[in-house]
Every structure is written in structure tokens, then in C-alpha cells.
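Sample pair:
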Amino acid sequence: MNKNEVKNKVKEIADQLISIRRHLHSHPELSFKEEKTAKYISSLLSGWQIPHETGVGGYGIVGLIKGTEPESRVIGLRADMDALPIQEQNNLNYCSVVDGVMHACGHDVHMTCLLGVVKILSEIKDSFRGTVKFIFQPAEESLPGGAIKMIEDGVLNDPTPEIIFAQHVFPELEVGKAGVKSGVYMASSDEINLTITGRGGHAAIPSSFDDTILSASDIIVNVKEVVEEKSPPGYPTVLTFGKITAEGAHNVVPSEVKVIGTFRTFNEEWREEVHGLISSISEDIAIKHNTKCEVFINRGYPVLINNDSATRNFMNTAKEFLGDDNVVDLDIRTTVEDFARFAQIIPGCFYRLGVANTVKGITSNLHSPTFNVDEDSIEIGTGLMLWTILNS
């Protein structure tokens, strides 16, 4: 199929895709709870007579579309399914009907575009060579993430993709544009949990208590200073503490203080070193204040590294489809992405789809209660993904 044939094929189902996206947007589900979403996707696939497997790694869905010479190559496509715990504030006739839950990260668009690609591929099996493995992944937004669960269930086996792509909406680009970065692109993520304990007591009698509040404060300051001082040049390091829980009072020093935060970096060796620094510094300073500090680091997603060859291929095909001026090189981001687990195992390319429209006022950031997309991006994103597959 040539470029115009691809665009025409997508245009034929564009209205149906928008309806699918609006249904998904109206009925979001949180990580590890995507039961109705999975049933809806499965019902569409079954209606299109596309074989697939459900219940992979939770509510994940996997299937194969075989073209000519199906064993000659296998290409993976992944879309995430979960929503966020955000109360939607848009004034749309397809707003979320689920209180406190919203597709504020565009996963409704991701699922819709992949569904469109799968539907078309199933109808043009003689027009592409090889096999496409499509993956609908649950729980991208919450640790430990759905990717690792699907991998444990064998999602990358029988057959194993030789390359895998994922598309993600990007409100920093206008609709009609796409972007990608070769090599290191997104950070690793870890959740830092500190629990400082000691004798609680009357704040007016220092001899009666251990100052857990001061201990926690000293730990925060010293950990941040040491990590910032030792941070290697070239890539940013983020260590931020976002919550301190201390159930004391004006005249009561609590026996326990909890501190939680996030750590993100682009270097796995430095990541391991920081884990050690956080533990040793926290424990040593706690002792200085006659307290104890328990450190728990919930290890999150790895650094996302886009394969050079896969990224070059995407850049070339995207420029053919969208035009040279509409495909841009992106900068590294300290946000994180569960797709990194797939890209650790097989060559991957995680690229961005422009969804903003400044003229229409569609400019809100991801993870915001007013996030929305220009729905023209659905037709463009479906066509771009399909064109990428046909030319990879």
C-alpha cells in the first residue's frame, strides 16, 4: 500500500475510531482494575473476527495478525490501558462518568489507534509481510507496572518480536506532528520511603523525647545535598521528597515520621549508587539524633532507551508520512514509562504523537484535569503507526 492508500483506509474508519475513543474516555479504569476496558476491547476484536488472548499479566490482551511470509519477521505494537485518579474538569459530552478517574494521559487514544491499526491489518493481510503482535497493556501508571506482569506471562514469546513500537500522545506538539529521540530518552523511577522512629514525648521537656522531626529534616537536607553534589554530569538527576507525615502537635513530638519521595535518573549504575547513599546517610543521621530510620526503596521502571536502528527507521517513515518539517527530535525527559521494560529485552522505539491545537484551545498538559486532544490526531496516529509497520 502506498501512503495515500493508507490514509484513505484510515479515513474510512475515522468516525468509528472517534466513537471508540470517546467510549474509552468516558469509562476510564485505574491501574490493575481495567476489567471493563479489557472486555470492551475484546468485544471489538471478536466482532472483527481477530483472534486474541485475554487475561495476560492481569487484564492484558495479546494477538497476532499474520501477513504473507508470517515467519519472516515479527513486529510488536503496544498500547497502555489504564487511567489516572484525577477528577475531570472538561466540558465535553464524553467526559468521564467515573468519579475521580480520568484518561488524563491519553491512553484512550493509544488504545484507539492500535485498534484501528489491527482492524485494517486484518483486512489487508496480503499487503504486508510478516507478523504483527499487538499488545494492550494494563497498569502503566502504577508500580510495579503491567509490562513486567505480561512479560512474566510470556507476552514476548511464541513468537518473539524482533522490534517493538509504542505511540504516546504529546501535548507539547501540535496535531499533525510527531517526535522521537534515539538512545536514552526517559528516566528510571524509584519510590523512596523513609520511616524515622524514636521516643515521642512532651515538646516542652527535651529529655523526654527523641526529636524525630529534626532527624527527618536533617536526613532530607543531607541526602539531597550529597546526591546533588555527586550527581554525574550529562544527564539530570531528580530527588524530590513530596510528603512528610508526622502526627504530632504544638507540644507533642511524634514517635514516628514518614517521608516519601521520588528518585529519577538516566544512568543505571548511578541509580544503584544513589540507593546506597540514601540508605547509609539516612541510617547514620538517624543514629546521630538517637532515632532509627528504616529505608524502603520501591524499585520502579528502568531507563527508557530507544534502539538507534528502530528510531532511525521510524524517523524516516514518519517523515515520508507526515513531511520532513513535521517530525522533530525530542529532548530527554525525567518522566518515566513502563514501555522501558519491553525495550530492555528487545529493540524498541517509543515515539510521540502531537495532539495539541492552540487555535482550538487544546493545550493542557498530561496528567491535568483539563487534558484533551484534537481528535484529528486519532486518524493521523493510526495512519502513522500503520505506515510504520508496513515500512519497517
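The chain has a mean pLDDT of 97.
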